[in-house]
């Protein structure tokens, strides 16, 4: 287990184990890129990958990806790259449009207030406001996919005690 994130460790292990079972396409094994790699040759911009794959729309102001179905409550953990010709439908996929343009005035105002309060300089101190912004951006989603309070707290703070308590609650 790494010192940073047991969830990232679990994600890496689980996805790598599954990908080992995937037959090779082309001449090479699939390559994995994980969201917890922030620089170097293994880096992959997960938000950009979500956009070009047609999975989500990216809000460049809020730095969030959003869909009509899930809002902004989904995790981008990994990209799997195959050495294969993409199907025509993937190559010609149209970019997703902004799912909830009617929320733009509220989102821009909430973001400006968060920035003015120091939310960019001291992200950790303002994690609750960032989570509220994510929830506002997701308020018209087809499904209520908001993470529960403990999951939100862990993802925004990486507090191991929060994760431990959540795991213990599930195990009971």
Structure description:
This protein has seven helices and four strands; from the N terminus they run αβαβββααααα. The protein has one domain (6-171). The chain is globular, with a radius of gyration of 18 Å. The protein has helices at residues 6-20, 46-52, 88-91, 104-116, 127-137, 149-157, 160-171; strands at 31-34, 57-59, 64-66, 78-81. Helix 4 (104-116) runs antiparallel to helix 5 (127-137) and helix 6 (149-157) runs antiparallel to helix 7 (160-171). With 172 residues, it is mainly alpha-helical. The strands form two sheets. It has a two-stranded antiparallel ribbon. Strands 2-3 form a two-stranded antiparallel ribbon.
Defining key terms:
globular; 41% helix; Cyanocobalamin reductase (cyanide-eliminating); mainly alpha; 172 residues; two-stranded antiparallel sheet
Summarize the structure.
This protein has 172 residues and is mostly helical. It contains seven helices and four strands; from the N terminus they run αβαβββααααα. Helix content is 41%, strand content 8%.
């Amino acid at each position: 287990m790494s010192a940073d994130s047991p969830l990232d460790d679990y994600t890496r292990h689980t996805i790598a184990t599954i990908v080992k079972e995937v037959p090779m396409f082309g001449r090479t094994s699939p390559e994995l890129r994980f969201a917890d790699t922030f620089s170097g040759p293994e880096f992959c911009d997960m938000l950009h990958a979500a956009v070009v794959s047609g999975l989500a729309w990216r809000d460049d102001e809020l730095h969030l990806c959003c869909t009509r179905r899930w809002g902004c409550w989904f995790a981008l953990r990994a990209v799997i790259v195959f050495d294969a010709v993409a199907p025509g439908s993937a190559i010609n996929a149209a970019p997703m449009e902004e799912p909830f343009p009617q929320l733009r005035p509220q989102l821009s105002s909430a973001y400006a207030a968060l920035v003015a309060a120091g939310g960019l300089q001291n992200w950790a101190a303002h994690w609750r406001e960032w989570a509220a912004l994510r929830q506002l951006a997701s308020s018209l989603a087809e499904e209520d996919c908001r993470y529960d309070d403990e999951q939100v707290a862990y993802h925004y703070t990486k507090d191991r005690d929060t994760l431990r308590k959540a795991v213990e609650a599930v195990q009971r």
